[in-house]
Amino acid sequence: MQKLEPITDFAPITPTAAITPKTHGWRAKCLQRLVRLELPVPQTVALPATTVRAIAAGQTVDCEGILRNFGAGPLISVRPSPENPDWGGPATVLNIGMNAARHALLAQTHGIDAADALYLRFIQSYAIHVARLDPDMFDQAEASGEALRAALHAYREEMDEAFPEDPARQLGEVLRSMARAWEGTSARLLRQAKGAPEAAGLGLVVQEMAQGIGQGMSGSGVMQFVDPVTGAAQVTGRYFDQAGGRHAKPQAMYLIRDPRGPSLEDLAPEVFAQLVKHGAVCRVRLREEMQIEFTIEDGRLSVLDAVKVQRSSRAGLRIAVALADDGVITRSEALLRVEPRALSELLHPQVDPRGGRDRFVRGIPASPGAAVGRIVFSSQAAQASAARGEPCILVRRETAPEDIRGMNSAAGVLTERGGVTSHAAVIARGLGLPCVVGASELRLDAREKRLVAPDGRVFREGDIITVDGTAGEALAGAAAMLGPALDDNFRRLLSWADDVRDIGVRANADTPADAQMARNFEAQGIGLCRTEHMFFTDDRLVVMREMIFADTSEDRAAALVRLLPMQRADFVQLFEIMQGLPVCIRLLDPPLHEFLPHSREGMLELAEALDRPLSEVTRRAEALAEFNPMLGMRGVRLGVVLPEIYDMQAQAIFEATIEIARRGGSVVPEIMIPLVSAKREVELVKTRIDAVAAMVRTKAGTDFDYKLGVMVETPRAALRAGEIAQHASFLSFGTNDLTQMTYGLSRDDAGRFMNTYVQKGVFPEDPFHILDVDGVGELLHIGADRGRATRPDLTVSICGEHAGNPESIAFCRTAGFDYVSCSPYRVPLARLAAAHLALRDREFGKPA
Ligand code: PEP
Ligand code: MG
């Protein structure tokens, strides 16, 4: 085989070198900008991503050539430089070039303690990150001649060779190990969770060390000008003073003047002032809040690096708003700088400190926020639970890459093993999911589906618990929660989003609490109110069951008369909260047997309440059971077969509308018919609803408007939307059922095999999670087009779970939908995602 020449594609960073974030990575580009701003940056060489990829593939690089840029006997560092700083990268390695000769030289110039410390730290970092040796063998905490010899000895024992002395070899190994780490599976998954493309490359920067040790004023530190948690303007960071070698160890010192102790500002006011000036220049010229990494050597400042300040989502938003307010960036840019998905982390509720806490185990707080849900022990169960719309807590011994899909479906995660950098912790933070790891006192039996707490309490699959990822605790039951803090910056950014977006955003809200949340998040109305949820409270369930058991239309009407005032009160409350914004109410949808008890005790209770024999109640309940209830007597079929139910609901809606008018408000209710598949269904329901409206108008002696629309959830409704639209003023696509029926795939059971299907590439993604734009999407296009051909002013929307995903919002916007309607917590995300789409179109021109 022909031997390949070592790669020579690398270059010193100068003001004019051809360096871009795409070719050499973000850090290299940033260093070049610092060089252009004439900041005191030590000599740096940048390796492009193509070179790094070739190194990972086994090619060698001309390390001698790289080293020639740094003069004789240099000490250098290597840092990762991905295209986007959020994509992470392997750990930095410092002091490459350290060897016995360099150690001896340093001992002369800087003293033996400093020389020992530098050499030891290099050996430790090389052994752990490059040679991948067991960190326990290199845990010598205190630097000393003895510790140094122990580390060198451990290296020789483990590797069967002496610690490499040749700087070029050291550099070559460091580059190879960093290049390979980037290609590893966990690194790949992590950066992809942050939006990195499959082919994302890594650049590397090699820089001369500026040690921050010397006889005069010396030290090292980092400085930033905002609080990384809140984003408030404030100098934060740290400084370690070497005090001219007078201390055995560097002393931590305050940056700004502080009554508690000495500070850099006191000790070296000119250097401090230079740093503040550099920070201000960077903020304006690099248009970003930067953290400056610096050293001071005998009073001389070096800026080694300036990276974007690591920040919480909350701080990220505040920084973007502040930069726009200061005119450093435009409002559009501020919007584009905040990832829609990051908002959900911001919105996470916390456990209310004023409420009780029934803690059953303590672990490590791995990802903030708190969540309540039912215990599930597998990713499949988590996906099934999400498909049913039930929040769940994924409890695992530890998680692995194949659990990512399950984690995505869970409201929170609890693991028995792991630390803050374990897979579960890292992924949960990436997803903004509350997470507690390392709850090692738990006894977990996933096969038996049970969990034993240290105090002996047993929890089973389906039991409700609370994960408090901020405190690192798991609590029994549903803890009282505090709503998220929506501060002024949040509201302002989203109001800027509203100024630019061109698709409406409503919320799915069934209860007054949901509606209030929808208002808090400034949804433009309710796009789906699932009325069945109103009948599950104890008092109503009994009447509902009486209605279901009624033998005659009159008996049914008698039960419904009792439900009427309750429904009316529900709608009055919703309309009051929504204050004139549109409210779209879906008539009853689920199969009736869902309202019946399923246990013997429940049947007995029902028999008592109805004063009927148990055998009759049981028989009637059995008669209502269906083989395939999701395709059975539900939705509009109830409205056709038992029309009194919809009559009652329509009457309640109209009377509530009149009540609101009487109180001085106004509302135009939207009534939506679920699960339609034929035009005649709509005709039948419409005729009765119009009659109810006429009756209510006459009785009340007052007029009101309403709209009647159809929920498109069956493929046939999409195909026949042209004729259905003759009787509907709006169509709303229920993509949960539509996906289920298009694929013939049960939304409650698909979780069992979805992983396999996605892994084998049958589906690119879980279609219940990410809208299938090819198949279901085609039906959406057909439905919208045919509906609009009949009725050009038809309002078209989507209200399935997909509506809150940026990808589906992009689809609906391109298809010309009027609005999306998603769960209240997704509303801010949807508003921002819609703004991003509009801005990107402006930037790149409208998609064809
Ligand atoms: C749907 O099917 O998409 C929908 C919104 O209705 P549900 O989830 O209540 O069936
Ligand atoms: Mg549905």
UniProtKB/TrEMBL annotation:
According to its UniProt record, which cofactors does this protein need? Mg(2+)
EC main class here is: transferase
Q: Which residues form the PEP-utilising enzyme C-terminal domain?
A: 489-837
| Sorted UniProt keywords | ATP-binding, Kinase, Magnesium, Metal-binding, Nucleotide-binding, Pyruvate, Transferase
Q: Does the keyword Transmembrane belong to this entry? A: no
The enzyme's E.C. designation: 2.7.9.1
- UniProt-annotated catalytic positions: 423, 799
User: Which residue intervals define the domain PEP-utilising enzyme mobile in the entry?
Assistant: 390-472
Q: Which residues bind substrate?
A: 530, 586, 713, 734-737
PROSITE patterns recorded for this chain? PEP_ENZYMES_2, PEP_ENZYMES_PHOS_SITE
User: What Gene Ontology molecular function terms does this protein carry?
Assistant: ATP binding; kinase activity; metal ion binding; pyruvate, phosphate dikinase activity
Q: What does this protein do?
A: Catalyzes the reversible phosphorylation of pyruvate and phosphate.
Indicate what this protein is called per its UniProt record: Pyruvate, phosphate dikinase
